[in-house]
Amino acid sequence: MAHDDSLQEQAGPEAGAEGKTLTENERFLQAKEVFETRSFEGEDLRMGQVLRRVRETLGLEIADVSRDTLMRKDYLMWIERMEVGELPGGGYLTAILNTYAKYLKLPEKEVIRVYSQECGAVQEVQNDAPVPKIGEIGPEKSRWPLAVAAAAL
């Protein structure tokens, strides 16, 4: 399932199966199908490959995504190749996936969940993006004791 980023699609990302130019809506529908089926031309895809195929189907280059989202090109390429070990830690994976999915108009939470499961980064996502339990959310503490202490000085 490895792929070579230097290879270009023969008909180009804007061309359909018959070689005709697709409208933006047709490209969007094809991209949605790639995402929902997680396959392209009969090949099952992992989420990184899905993101790449969706981007290509929409007629976007890595440089376009990088420019529009202000994310580094190498980060985007690593995400598509599922080489998360190359990314810095501390929540970058979740943030990049969220931004990239939103840019491609894909459901962010599903992309993060599936990608994390497939690349083995589930623990990183849980640690870097914890959701507090209802019991852990407390009322905001009053700030007036600080104001009184500052006024006393």
Would you give an account of this structure?
54% of the residues lie in helices and 3% in strands. The chain is mainly alpha-helical and 153 residues long. The protein has a two-stranded antiparallel sheet. Helix 1 runs antiparallel to helix 2 and helix 5 crosses helix 6 (108-119). The longest helix has 14 residues, at 24-37.
Question: Could you give a short description of this structure?
Answer:
By secondary structure, the chain is mostly helical. 54% of the residues lie in helices and 3% in strands. The protein has eight helices and two strands; from the N terminus they run αββααααααα.
Tell me the span between the first and last alpha carbons: 68 Å
Percentage of residues in DSSP E strands: under 5%
Helix content: 40-55%
Query: What Rg is obtained from the alpha carbons, in whole angstroms?
Result: 21 Å
pLDDT below 50 for ≥5 consecutive residues: which ranges?
A: 1-15, 125-133
The biggest sheet, with number of strands, parallel, antiparallel or mixed sense and barrel status, is: 2 strands, antiparallel
Characteristics of this structure?
single chain, 153 residues, mainly alpha, 8 helices, 54% helix, elongated
